[in-house]
Design a protein that fits this description.
The chain has 383 residues and is an alpha+beta fold. It contains eleven helices and seven strands. It folds into two domains: 137 residues, no CATH class; 135 residues, Heat Shock Protein 90 (2-Layer Sandwich). The strands form two sheets. The chain has a five-stranded mixed sheet. Strands 1-3 form a two-stranded antiparallel ribbon. A hairpin with a 2-residue loop joins strand 4 and strand 5. The chain is elongated.
């Protein structure tokens, strides 16, 4: 289902990508506050470094969320985490304990990268930290932390602990997640194949009915055409489920576009009939309810085409809205023809019965208005 570009589309993401978003949000928060702190305490070099890092994070997030360049964003965010911290350690030594963040960084590396790149980068980080400590020792031989064996041992122990946790994460949590992702992918492929085969079987059935209609008398042919349209309405639901890569929901407006095209192809092009969808263009419906709605919409559209003079202009407005936990489906036929409300509510035809059955299956309420054209209002709960 296409829901537009979200700020954080967590419901559509791989678990590692969700972590990547989390690091962007966390680092953005930290590097937004850090320059304010630095300015307050008069550390203007630190403020410049942290402000630059914040801007790079924003750029990285843009690449991640809007350009879908996940790999680039991963290395950018890791670079933002590493480079400013090394610069701050060099300029401040151990004055603000930034070294603590360097020790924690390999954990982020194991979260965001595969095992081999993570091991290489984590090792490189600790080697770079050792080199930086050596440079600081030469630059400031009196740095007290470097002359405190217990502090250096604690830094080493913390580094070992972080590396160990990263390895445990990879060989337990991450590998298990990979297995789950693989299993879900296989299930998705199987479900996709099921919908594809159901669609094909329904289309074969519809084609057989179409062929039979060509060899039947007018009355029988009309009945077969109606059955063909009903089957194709359901087939389109299954087709959209696997084509839109969402096996649970269907965007309503997209379906109505397909359905009107399909019905018109059965009954011939009608230039005097204009269809419009005026509701929330991104609302979606689950499979079970969509099939019922498909049958209802198919009957309403078919009736409009069948019972409207070819010379009479007709505008059909179909809208689905959701408010206060309820869906409201409206079908409006703006035409000049006379319509009997009694026939629509108490008629004995199969079409009327299918509409009523569909409304019952949806556990919905149906209201029909005929004072100006024809208007169906169907309301059902969002559950």
């Amino acid at each position: 289902m296409n829901t537009g570009q979200k700020f954080f589309p967590y419901d559509q993401l791989h678990h590692r990508t969700i972590l990547l978003y989390g690091f962007h949000f966390s680092f953005a928060f930290i590097f937004f506050l850090a320059p304010i702190r630095d300015v307050i305490f008069g550390n203007y070099v630190n403020a410049a470094v942290n402000s630059t890092a914040f801007l790079v994070i924003l750029w990285s997030y843009y690449l991640l969320n809007y350009k879908k360049r996940e790999v680039t964003a991963t290395f950018l965010i890791l670079g933002v985490a590493v480079v400013p911290l090394f610069i701050l350690i060099y300029y401040n030594s151990f004055a603000n304990l930034v070294v603590v963040y360097i020790i924690l960084l390999p954990l982020a590396v194991f979260f965001l990268l595969d095992f081999k790149p993570a091991m290489i980068m984590a090792t490189a980080l600790y080697m770079a930290l050792g080199i930086l400590l050596y440079i600081i020792a030469i630059k400031d031989p009196l740095e007290p932390t470097l002359h405190n064996p217990l502090a250096l041992i604690n830094i080493a122990f913390a580094s070992i602990l972080i590396m160990s946790f990263g390895l445990i994460y990879h060989f337990s949590v991450f590998l298990q997640m990979q297995k789950l992702v693989k299993t879900n992918t296989q299930k998705d492929m199987l479900l996709k194949e099921v919908h594809h085969r159901v669609k094909n079987n329904l289309n074969v059935t519809a084609s057989m009915l179409g062929l039979q209609a060509m060899k039947s008398d007018a009355f029988t042919a009309e009945a077969l055409k109606k059955s063909k349209a009903r089957i194709e309405a359901i087939a389109t639901v299954h087709e959209m489920l696997y084509k839109e890569e969402d096996f649970e929901n269907i965007v309503f407006d997209h379906y109505i576009e397909r359905l009107t095209t399909s019905v018109l192809s059965i009954y011939g092009t009608r230039s005097n009939i204009v269809f419009k969808c005026d509701g929330d263009g991104e609302l979606s419906i689950d499979l079970d309810r969509m099939i019922q709605i498909a049958l209802i919409m198919n009957e309403l559209i078919t009736n409009t085409i069948k019972h409207t003079d070819t010379q009479m202009p007709v505008e059909i407005n179909i809208a689905l809205e959701r408010t206060d936990g309820k869906y409201r489906l409206v079908y409006v036929e703006d035409s000049q023809k006379e319509i009997s409300e009694e026939a629509l509510t108490h008629g004995s035809g199969l079409g009327v019965k299918l509409v009523q059955l569909g409304v019952k299956q949806l556990d919905a309420t149906l209201k029909i208005e005929t004072n100006r054209g024809l208007k169906y209002i169907i309301e059902f709960n969002d559950v």
